Amino acid sequence: MYLYNSATRKKEPFVTHTPGHVEMYTCGPTVYHFAHIGNLRSYIMEDVLEKLLRYEGLDVNRVMNITDVGHLTGDSDEGEDKMLKGAKREHKSVMEIAKFYTDAFFSDCAKLNIKTPDTVQPATGLIPEFITMIQGLLDKGYAYVAGGNVYFDTSKLPRYHIFFDHDEADLQVGVREGVEEDRNKRSKNDFVLWFTKSKFEDQALKWDSPWGVGYPGWHIECSAISLKYNGEYLDLHCGGIDNAFPHHTNEIAQSESYLGHPWCGCWFHVHHLNTGDGKMSKSKGEFLTVSLLEERGYDPLIYRFFCLQSHYRKALMFTWENLDNARGAYRKLIARVAALKPGGEPDGEILSAQREKFIRAVGNDLNTSLGITAVYDALKLPVSDATKLAVLEDFDKVLGLGLLDRAAKKRTEDARLAASATASGDMTVEGEGDPEIDALVLERARAKKAKNFAEADRIREDLNARGIELTDVPGGVRWRRV
Ligand SMILES: [Zn+2]
């Protein structure tokens, strides 16, 4: 398997520290608000990656943090405490907010077929480990205390690894408009490991430490959590590209200084979801959530399908029109799967040949759109329906598009329509004697009569996908297979 590694800026064979075993870490959500679908794009692609590794027979240990310690809205050490901001907005305690939005995050993930990592660790549960790591950095001379806070000293590193060609202006925190320089810092890239003096006098969560009562900086939590559950050698670190700098940059600085050896083999970054008016963020425009998609009648798996159609290293343009196109394609696909007749023995040889082909395609830097192409190719194979269904079920272990599940639901729904159509008898249907098709044809004719053209078109598309041609005749509709 090949993956692009952000640290080397090259596509490389994916090699792990222990053969056959993958230690994987994912930066989790900050739980002060609902997850934006732009952030969920990262979790979807990381989920496909984890499933592909398992599909290839690797043993995966995946760890994720939950940022429930207050952390700052900006990249600098100033700004607002997001958790406290959420708590104030909703008149709840910080821990109530964290619990509510953690549950909401995992509920969204479940709807998107995203597997929960093996270990999920809220930052507030591991404060002693953070303190141990910070003390270790101080003991080794990689940190200093100034103005009551503990800072990481980036000048002590032979190389402060900054991902990508970052705009130098972004590093000039002190000169950015509206951002106050932290005068305790010895150099501009230094960052806080532990706060005892912050701008938030009313910080809700505080712990005792050798440096006084306070709370950890954001970056330390991922380094310490990964060290505890993944061990000293990490194979794969995932996150949205937003996190590459400064967060991942600072994670590398802390972890390698503390451990005294190289830490993570491969860095996997998922690019932005954009709208027509620029990068999506929580501060501007419509706040896009899984619930909003559902309110507008989209199955959340349509969004997963939409994400999988594009490569994770390209910015993805979100518009409702683009999502509608994905919905049309997804529904046609499900209709084709639903038209396959279950039962019978699949051909094992075909199955393993398809599996190899699939791994070659998707295993080339997580090419999910080729994974979807493989699904369409499998539908065209000159093999039995049982074999096709077995191949699709196998591919879907990685893609997670609910192909068989949604197809089964569709069959049930179509049968229900068939039952109600026979009872109605308000229109004649001439066809080839298939009650299920008769029912759909009737349903479409009724939707059309009721001027529900969207529904009528949807059913016609479904029928077309099954190779059914419709002709309007006086008093009814005629259909035939083409
Ligand atoms: Zn992180």
What do you see in this structure?
The chain is α/β, with parallel strands linked by helices and 482 residues long. The protein has three domains: 2-270, HUPs (Rossmann fold, 3-Layer(aba) Sandwich); 279-404, Four Helix Bundle (Hemerythrin (Met), subunit A), CATH 1.20.120; 425-481, no CATH class. Helices cover 45% and strands 16% of the residues. The protein has helices at 37-55, 82-90, 94-111, 127-139, 168-171, 218-230, 244-259, 290-295, 300-308, 320-338, 348-362, 368-380, 385-399, 403-424, 435-449, 453-465; strands spanning 2-5, 10-13, 21-26, 59-66, 119-122, 143-146, 149-152, 191-195, 215-216, 234-240, 264-270, 273-275, 278-279, 316-317, 428-430, 468-473, 476-481. The strands form five sheets. It has a five-stranded parallel beta sheet with strand order 5-4-3-10-11, sandwiched between helices. Strands 6-7-8-9 form a four-stranded antiparallel beta sheet. A three-stranded mixed beta sheet has the order 13-12-14, covered by helices on one side. Helix 6 packs across helix 7 (244-259), helix 10 packs across helix 16 (453-465) and helix 11 runs parallel beside helix 13 (385-399). It is elongated, with a radius of gyration of 26 Å. The structure holds zinc ion (ZN). The site of zinc ion (ZN) has 3 residues, from loops.
Q: Briefly, what is this?
A:
The chain is built from 16 helices and 17 strands. By secondary structure, the chain is α/β, with parallel strands linked by helices. α11 packs parallel to α13 and α15 runs antiparallel to α16.
